[in-house]
Design brief:
This protein has 381 residues and is of the alpha/beta class. It has helices at residues 17-20, 30-45, 57-64, 74-97, 110-114, 116-131, 154-164, 201-206, 219-231, 246-251, 265-275, 287-294, 335-341, 349-353, and strands spanning 10-15, 21-22, 27-28, 49-54, 103-108, 135-140, 169-174, 179-180, 192-193, 195-196, 235-240, 256-259, 281-285, 304-309, 316-320, 325-330, 367-369. It contains 14 helices and 17 strands. Strand 15 and strand 16 form a beta hairpin. The chain starts with 9 loop residues before the first strand and ends in a 12-residue tail after the last strand.
Length: 381
Amino acid sequence: MSPEIGQFRRIVLKVGSALLVDRARGRLNHAWLAALAEDIADLHARGADVLVVSSGAIAMGRTVLGLPAGPLKLEESQAAAAVGQIALARTWSEVLAHHGITAGQILVTLSDTEERRRYLNARATTLKLLEMRAVPVINENDTVATSEIRYGDNDRLAARVATMIGADLLVLFSDIDGLYTAPPASDPNAEHLPIVERITPAIEAMAGGAASEISRGGMRTKVEAAKIATSGGTHMVIADGRTKNPLKRVAEGGRCTWFLTPSNPATARKTWIAGALEPRGTLYVDEGAARALQSGASLLPVGVRRVEGSFARGDAVTIRDDQRILGRGLVAYDADDAARIIGRPSREIEAILGYPGRTEMVHRDDLALTDRTVIPASLSA
Ligand code: GLU
């Protein structure tokens, strides 16, 4: 059984250049976009958080600048993106405003999702926009991203963003209605796959390499995106975006391919905190804090007795009492600042540090307790 769109609470929609930009005229497909905005408004009205990852900057900018068809040099695509992104952002802002929804532009580079400190900032900003019920409209910051540090395709970018903000669904709108056992255009025996439970080498082999001139991602980058999404606890669906109201179509059972995740975003994040990061220091907590952690609370500065190691905000640290290791978490302060506020109530943080920091030393969302999460023996020391 495929999941229902209505069950998801945080949804990332990825819209490709080929759908947004009319290739012949190099203009935005306004009518189509306005219909998609209706779909977004429906989701938004029933309380879901919605984010859009929108391509199209380069495709639009190249027409405005009169660049010839065919592959562009890096500086040319950067110049095109600089011109096209303005129009793209304005259009999103207008079509969403029509439904009373505020849009906020976020331009990210690879390092914003891969480097921990920047990751935390990008995540915090995005979550703040969602909290204020705005719809973040995200694209790669193509004008500053050089080839080595570029995603280059918004499929994988969207998957990273989706896992970063703990989305439970990523929808990739494409010019095809999902994954087939072979390219359907050239193979009459190609069969459509409605559900992919696990991405096996056989599934990867089905995703050929084709990418059109206007958009970069072929089926291969979509399956790569599915790997990133599903291992981060996010379900993903590839759906045909060429019809009007494409999301409504998926909701009504239209043909598409679901990639299911065995996990959920919260569990995946905790597993990541528990296993993937090397701890940079240790927080020794008192008995009261140890008990509070076990009952699901965050770790407050007042419950920390001693700080060891030289860590930065966002690093993983080991949390322990005198007897044993309690778990790991992402710490909200650099080691020096942490040392200054331990043992103190959170309301004094601003007076001590001179800036209003986080109430928690380690927020419970950033905490993986040893007896709740499986920490591999090799990592738990
Ligand atoms: N970031 C590129 C743009 O906005 C698009 C990349 C893609 O097509 O996936 O033009």
